[in-house]
Amino acid sequence: MSDHMSSVQSCEDFSRERLQLNQHLEKMTEQMENASVKLSWMAYDMVVLRTSPDLAESLKCLENEFLKCKAVICGPTDGQDKKTHPASEEPNIPQEKS
What we know:
Blueprint: H1 2-51, H2 53-74
């Protein structure tokens, strides 16, 4: 009777370990899939930037404009003084032609 109970217990332990292993493997597979997707997007971004140099320049211009807007809204950061604050400059807004 004791042998039967110990074999049932060991079978349950084995089943529990197998279930945990399967869950762990599924989690690892999902993490690898996520890493693969991120890597694919990085490769895509590199190809786009290398085949279209204008895009890199546009992104830099967009970043500069964002920093100007941020400075106007949030005020100057530690690296800026009042003289270089964009709010003190003349706004460069295109005028409509009549």
